[in-house]
Amino acid sequence: MIDQKDYQLLKTIGEQGSVQRAASAIGVSWPSVSKRLAKIEEKLQVTLFERRRGRNGVVPLPVLKSILDEYENFSKTLTATIQEQTAANDDRDLDILRIGIATTIGKADVERALAMLGTVGSLAVKDMSADEALHALEAGETDMALLAEPSYAPMFKSYLVSVDPFQVAFPTGHRFENQNSVQLSELDDENYINRSLCEFPRYFAEQTNAEADADEDDGPHDITNEVVAQIMIQQGYGVAVIPESLVVVQGLRTRALVRPSVVRKIMLVTRADSPVNGIFQKSSLPATLRASG
After folding, report:
1. Taking the chain, what is the end-to-end CA distance rounded to the nearest angstrom?
2. Does pLDDT of 87 surpass 60?
């Protein structure tokens, strides 16, 4: 089944009747939309649009409506389930806050967030991917999540913990060691280690209006474990863009990423209708924790 992002993309392409016009409506480049459409069709193993010549024109095939209807029905059922779970959670004792922490969050930000939340009550912590954390929030399985995504759906409310610049990581003795900073274009000639859970491509797209999946296909390495990624960099397998807050292993060197400089936002996220928001308003949280959504 498709997800929310797939649904919105397919619906926009169908409404616009053109990949190029859909890209303009969404605010990304048309090659990015075309690539995402191809991936969706490959995942579903079905052709959704008849391609027409001229300005990337397309005509929806009947199967598209079935797929969109299926997602809409699933979404309605999920929303109803979440509302029921939320109603049940409203009566739950919030002396213990259930927190999901994304695996890409650095040590200092984890410590800062836990210190902030420790003033509210006892904590039950679980590490997970960003997608898992958001799904857990939706389902009422957790109360908050510590994440670094560029944006969140209207159903969520977020609180800023810190701003975290991205940097370039490379092994000792690399040519970048003689530079004060590294331009993104300089990575084109390097073996790139793709940290596949990293938020950098999405922030890069947001802050530069470029393609969100700009680095997805660079190099043969696709790593989810931060320690493994950094050891591979240390051993000379390649370079990578990593957040400044992440602890680096011995023998790893870093330089500021420039042209463009890209930063991510570390946020505590909860449902907009969660009773946790009321607790925050009544508690004496540090001034760095500000509501952002």
Report:
1. 29
2. no
